[in-house]
Amino acid sequence: QCRSSDRKMMTSVVRILKNSGDSTGATSPASPDLLRVFVKGAGERVLAQCSSVLVADQVIPLTPERKAEVEKTVVDAMAAEALRTICLAYRDIDPEREPDWRERCAAPHQMFMKGETQLTCLGIAGIEDPVRDEVPGAVAQCQRAGIKVRMVTGDNIITAKAIAKRCEIFHEESGGLAMLGPDFTRAIGGVVCQTCQTEVCACATDAKTAEEQNKPLRVDVVRDLDAFDKIWTRLEVLARSQPSDKYALVTALKQKGRVVAVTGDGTNDAPALKKADVGFAMGLSGKEVAKQAADIVMLDDNFTCIVKAVKWGRNVYDNIRRFLQFQLTVNVVAVALTVVCTAVQREAPLSAVQMLWVNLIMDSFASLALATESPTDDLLNRKPQGRDSYLISRSMLTSIVAASIYQLTVMIGLIFFGERFLPETKWTFLSDEDRRNLGFCEFSDCDFGMYTGTRMLSGRRYKLFSTEDDYKLEWLREVGPSRHGTFVFNTFVFMQIFNTINARDVDDTQIEKSTSLSAAILGMVRNPLGLGIWVLIVLGQVLMTECGGRLLGCHQEGLNREQWMLSLLLGLGGLLWGRLPRVFPSLYKLAPEFGSREETLEETHSLALELRGRTPERMNERLGLASYTFAKKYAKKARLMTLSRLRTRRLEGGRDGRGRGVSSFAGIRNRGASRGDARVAPRQNKACSPPLSDAREEACIEMQ
């Protein structure tokens, strides 16, 4: 037997014993009467090799006209109905007429190739692989989520287009393009080494080998990216494709900066699965090699698994951003407040124990509450994040700044001016005699005759811009922590508690849909664990404030009813303030526009080489383009040119994000590259040897 996936055919050779019509195994006899070749494969491929057809036990010659009619009325008609056509044919070989058949048996592939011609067609069958009911909906969800779904298959192009239409992948009416795999690979020039510009080269294929053998690391690229630019935006179906065609498509898409996911089940799919950003292997029908090369194994071989993976991936990404937005807000406020208070009153606004409680909320509780959000279908209603996008978006920065401004304003007002407006009631655990002995009164507007008032006593250690005591150390020892400090601590914590609701909104595209406060609260309620942690933080704060006492740096009697209400209102005010940018999206325009990072995760750099000016970009340019130094070094040996004949053009130079000099030339510059990478041109054997054409002159540049 011989099976060829390249030719979409399978051939079996059996022997027919002498004086017998029975067929047995493939072992050739010493002197067989007849060898019979059975061929099955793609309808149009096998039919093209047939010269006759069996009709009613009669072999009828198959003329080219009849063959074209059969292909149109049978093969194409079945393919249009999404049927995979298989043609069955045979041929008899007489060993006496072909005495060298034993020698050709030593090279089975060649014999089968010859045996697969002049066939007799037995019939054409159409096999249906029904599309699962959930696949069109899953594809539509992916497309709505900004994911372009392309089908790469080995089927006939007509069959492929019919199946793709049923799956809502191919949209011919919208300009969708369907191509044959070999035509696609031929159009883009195939996959070559970025350094050598050849399909096969001596470069190392892995970093370890490159380091041990001191060879450049091979990076696969497509030869003609301009041709790919004209194809890929409309390309939706690749038919009669080989694994190499799939690998070329993945390579080209990644070269364009796209995030690529690939599904596969065969051994030959392993390179494409490994090359892709995310590889999906079939768990039921997939080969072990494909599973090992993939990142995710679909246990039920269902396309809907990809939709679930997209939802969970985006959800994890959003949960990280939620936690980051909340934590940055707390850090900015806590650090700024500590710096200001230390500089003005030489004392931190919160005690060490209180700061530990804030850190527990900020790190542990918030991570559980914000990082355990379950995915929703709304995640599929937005475009995907680019590979070079920042974690902190424009809306996140605006929310962080807005929340920080509100919290800092409230906290500074409470700390430095709270005694002017905060309400206070008489402390029950102190007698008037104790107050007289200590010279103490809990009111800032105290009537020392009656020890009464309405406003809270300042709890600051020193008076503003003075070394004079405000809340005396003697009072701290005898009476305990002030109620002013307890109120400041309680308000700060409740502002963080309510800010966890605002921190849930992190997506720029969905920000206008989250204007209502009820939507934000409903989103938090949908997460039982997050809601439980939120309630736990509130209960813990109440216990610390009312029962913590001196141990936790709180007032012995906690806070009264009016102070609790005011503290809650100030915390709720932070929630309402945080909704303003969502009610007025134009406020987000005040934040700076985030661009793309200059480096992608795939790029590797050697600091030692960069310090010597030998960056990967410059090395690629030197290998791929004829430079002045190249000509100067090798002109005498190659006798291709002399220094006086060398015509160079100094190109206008720029500086990249690292401060390195790079060439800037419209003809070779990689469009869209963030670091001024030059597109590598094919190496010329006789670089810049006269007479120079215009194109060769442009390729001959002086490196900066």
UniProtKB/TrEMBL annotation:
The lineage of its organism: Eukaryota, Sar, Alveolata, Apicomplexa, Conoidasida. SUPFAM superfamilies: Calcium ATPase, transmembrane domain M, HAD-like. This is P-type Cu(+) transporter. It is found in: Endomembrane system. It comes from the Eukaryota. Keywords: ATP-binding, Copper, Copper transport, Hydrolase, Ion transport, Magnesium, Membrane, Metal-binding, Nucleotide-binding, Translocase, Transmembrane, Transmembrane helix, Transport. It is a multi-pass membrane protein. Residues 348-580 form the Cation-transporting P-type ATPase C-terminal domain. Residues 673-692 are annotated as: Disordered. GO terms for cellular component: endomembrane system; plasma membrane. InterPro entries: ATPase_P-typ_cation-transptr_C, ATPase_P-typ_cyto_dom_N, ATPase_P-typ_TM_dom_sf, HAD-like_sf, HAD_sf, P_typ_ATPase. It is an enzyme of class 7 (translocase).
